[in-house]
């Protein structure tokens, strides 16, 4: 951004093509800015870049968490799980983490009115559901609380003076260390860890719904013609690969540091690297949730004639505007991309 303001380098124009910045500014009737004393350093020093990446990640993750709660509820419904573990009295009064209470409330609400859940409420020989179903609000809720903490850090940083040197109210110009990105770098790493775990539990639900020994009577891999079709087998491979990528990217960047500038800058936050890693994790998470979305919808539809809950039914109807339902094997990539696009946060 700083180079564009100065009329330097290359950038993408309105046509989406990369061109020299002087040409783009001239066409737009914009004159390059002329920097004065200290302004050049102010444009590139401090936490602005990593803070921008943090804010964008928070925006996307807050949206994805709401989607993830409904998708998890769909998986519970399709796998003949119980909604009773999501009751409010099992959460905030006993374990007062606000994110957990929110996710449990969302999941319970998403299953209200489900004929599928009601069909096995009595006489079910299962003692309890697997962790990936039963503990869904505990994991998603912990991610919510992590995002809330990251938001508090971002809001403080947005209101902060991180310039160096800084001009105080009395006119004193003095050096300081407020440009150091540790507060932002830490939460960028923290979010990558949390988002990776959410992707991990989502993938475990996908694996469960494809296993005929664990999917409560559905076909292997949810195939239309078992033994002939592969169903969603390769989609689960994709989810597993994305989660493995996330696990590698979840290794913290902020614990690393490399000195520069003749050892004057001998400890740095690595926040920029943390931000770039987090962006990839967020995109991977969206794609994993898209795979669970497709699988859970297929599970629920295969429980006909029992009808889904109104909320999960509406989520399936939204998916069906872009992704076809159960049927013979077909090329999955366009459908996975379409589902991921549905889950993308709307532009602010």
What is the highest CATH level, the class?
Answer: Mainly Alpha
Question: How many discrete domains?
Answer: 1
| Fold-level CATH name | Fumarase C, Chain A, domain 2
What is the H/E string?
HEEHHHHHHHEEHHHHH
Observed structural traits:
two-stranded antiparallel ribbon; 3% strand; 13 helices; two-stranded antiparallel sheet; 4 strands; single chain; mainly alpha; Fumarase C, Chain A, domain 2
Structural account:
The chain has 348 residues and is mainly α. The protein has one domain: Fumarase C, Chain A, domain 2, CATH 1.20.200.10. 56% of the residues lie in helices and 3% in strands. The chain contains 13 helices and four strands. It has helices at residues 2-6, 21-28, 39-44, 48-78, 98-110, 115-119, 131-134, 136-158, 182-210, 233-249, 271-301, 310-320, 333-343, and strands spanning 10-12, 18-20, 166-167, 173-174. The protein has a two-stranded antiparallel sheet. α5 packs across α8 (136-158) and α8 runs antiparallel to α9 (182-210). The longest helix has 31 residues, at 48-78. The mean pLDDT is 95.
Question: What's a concise summary of this model?
Answer:
This protein has 348 residues and is mostly helical.
How do the strands and helices of this protein lay out in sequence?
Elements: H1 2-6, E1 10-12, E2 18-20, H2 21-28, H3 39-44, H4 48-78, H5 98-110, H6 115-119, H7 131-134, H8 136-158, E3 166-167, E4 173-174, H9 182-210, H10 233-249, H11 271-301, H12 310-320, H13 333-343
Antiparallel strand pairs: 1-2, 3-4
Helix pairs in contact: 4-5, 4-8, 4-9, 4-11, 5-8, 8-9, 9-10, 9-11, 10-11, 11-13
């Amino acid at each position: 951004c700083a180079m564009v303001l100065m009329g330097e380098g290359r950038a993408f124009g309105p046509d989406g093509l990369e061109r020299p910045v002087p040409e783009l500014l001239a066409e737009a009737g914009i004159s390059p800015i002329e920097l004065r004393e200290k302004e050049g350093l102010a444009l590139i020093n401090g936490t602005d870049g990593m803070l921008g990446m943090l804010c964008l990640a928070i925006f996307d993750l807050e949206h994805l968490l709401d989607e993830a709660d409904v998708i998890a509820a769909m998986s519970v419904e399709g796998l003949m799980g119980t909604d009773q573990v999501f009751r409010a009295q099992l959460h905030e009064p006993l374990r007062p983490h606000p994110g957990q209470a929110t996710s449990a409330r969302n999941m319970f609400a998403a299953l209200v009115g489900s004929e599928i859940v009601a069909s096995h409420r009595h006489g079910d020989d299962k003692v309890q559901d697997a962790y990936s179903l039963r503990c869904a609000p505990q994991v998603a809720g912990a991610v919510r609380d992590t995002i809330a903490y990251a938001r508090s850090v971002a809001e403080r940083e947005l209101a902060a003076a991180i310039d160096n040197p800084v001009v105080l109210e009395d006119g004193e110009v003095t050096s300081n260390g407020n440009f150091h990105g540790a507060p932002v770098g830490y939460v960028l790493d923290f979010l990558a860890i949390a988002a990776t775990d959410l992707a991990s539990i989502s993938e475990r639900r996908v694996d469960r719904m494809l296993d005929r020994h664990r999917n409560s009577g559905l076909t292997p891999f949810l195939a239309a013609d078992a033994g002939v079709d592969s169903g969603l087998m390769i989609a689960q491979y994709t989810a597993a690969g994305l989660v493995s990528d996330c696990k590698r990217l979840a290794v913290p960047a902020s614990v690393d540091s490399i000195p520069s500038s003749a050892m004057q800058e001998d400890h740095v936050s690595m926040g920029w690297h943390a931000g770039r890693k987090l962006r990839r994790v967020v995109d991977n998470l969206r794609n994993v949730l898209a795979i669970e979305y497709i699988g859970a919808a297929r599970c629920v539809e295969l429980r006909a004639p029992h009808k889904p809950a109104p909320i999960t039914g509406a989520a399936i109807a939204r998916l069906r505007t872009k992704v076809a339902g159960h049927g013979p094997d077909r090329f999955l990539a366009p459908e996975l991309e379409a589902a991921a696009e549905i889950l993308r946060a709307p532009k602010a």
